[in-house]
Write a structure and sequence with these properties.
The structure is a single chain. With 408 residues, the protein is an alpha+beta fold. Among the domains are: 143 residues, no CATH class; 130 residues, Heat Shock Protein 90. 61% of the residues lie in helices and 9% in strands. A five-stranded mixed beta sheet has the order 1-2-3-5-4, covered by helices on one side. Helix 5 runs antiparallel to helix 6, helix 8 packs across helix 11 and helix 11 packs antiparallel against helix 12. The protein starts with a helix and ends in a 5-residue tail after the last strand.
Length: 408
Amino acid sequence: MTSAAVEHPGLLPGSLGTTARRTTRDWLVDSFCFVVSMAWVLAATFDAASPSPVLAERLPYDWMIPADALVGLAASVALWVRRRWPLGLAVATLPLGMFSVAAVAAVLIIYFTLVVHRRTTVAVAVTAAGLVANMFFALLRPEPGNPYWSTTLWGAVITLLVLAWGMFVRARRQLVLSLRERAERAEAEQQLRVAQARHLERTRIAREMHDVLAHRISLLSLHAGALEFRPDAPAEEVARAAGVIRGSAHAALQDLREVIGVLRAESSLTEEPERPQPTMADLPALVAESRAAGVRVDLRDEVSDADRLPAALGRTAYRIVQEGLTNARKHATGAAVTVGLRGAPADGLTVEIRNRWPVGEPTEPLPGAGTGLIGVAERVALAGGRLAHGRDGSGDFRLAAWLPWPAT
């Protein structure tokens, strides 16, 4: 409900309040109502001033004609403020309904405004008072040749017609207002859903880039450490290590540039952002990178019908292996790593990374955010699988995940 409606308890939502500004349409409507009311005042005044013995019976005193015209003029001028005080004007003009003919048009317009902008209980109460005033009008201004009840009945019919018309207009305005609010709410909810989807998409991209950058930076650190501890290495090995460092650094910067561009861009959801989308087919290249860095990796691929593996499932398996190799380089330097893949449609996909538990602590352990395994757990949970990690009975560190692989 608007602030104006709060200030005026009888004011309907969407109606004009004390602080509402008159729009162009309101100016046109108010001008039309004023012209109609003035036209009625002139017509009633000229009709009353015309020489007729019948009118002489109705208006026994000549001063009544200009007095009635002044009353009608005052009521017509009051039409300009009827939107601000519909109830007050309706109550103030109720006595005019007992004797004034020139003010009839203005009184009906004010009454119509009251019905449109006030609640039903208020409109019914004013209607009842108006019907009582109409009964007095038939007594004070009788129609020659017409019985009393006939004049009263016509006045009541006109009043009830205005009431029905005003209630119809009010109901229609409420319906339009409700539909407009519903459309605005639906649009706001749609924008919220788009913003949430964009946020989730960017979060997923950032999580994937964390895995990518952690893998590449761990390679950089491993090669740099080898150069630091073997300054007397042959020139060929130094050149090869420097080339790997340069390539890994370039790839890391490229990945970082892509993810920053995606996170900054206000692209629509229909546009697929550019980002790494590895699959199971990229696992040999991932293992080759680790081997080139000096890590002993044994890849055992026992997956049946690998070409039928869903892309999302293959990407999740790739990230699990990537995180396992990254953790092995960080926390088990020099240990051999075994990567095992097995599975088939309807049986699921099992990914296992195993390495010996390190003896002692690394001289300079690589820093980490500690969120790698958390991200892997989230990926596995979203895929509907199971994840286990930790030291097993043989003393090895084991990272294993089972992912559902539907038959179709």
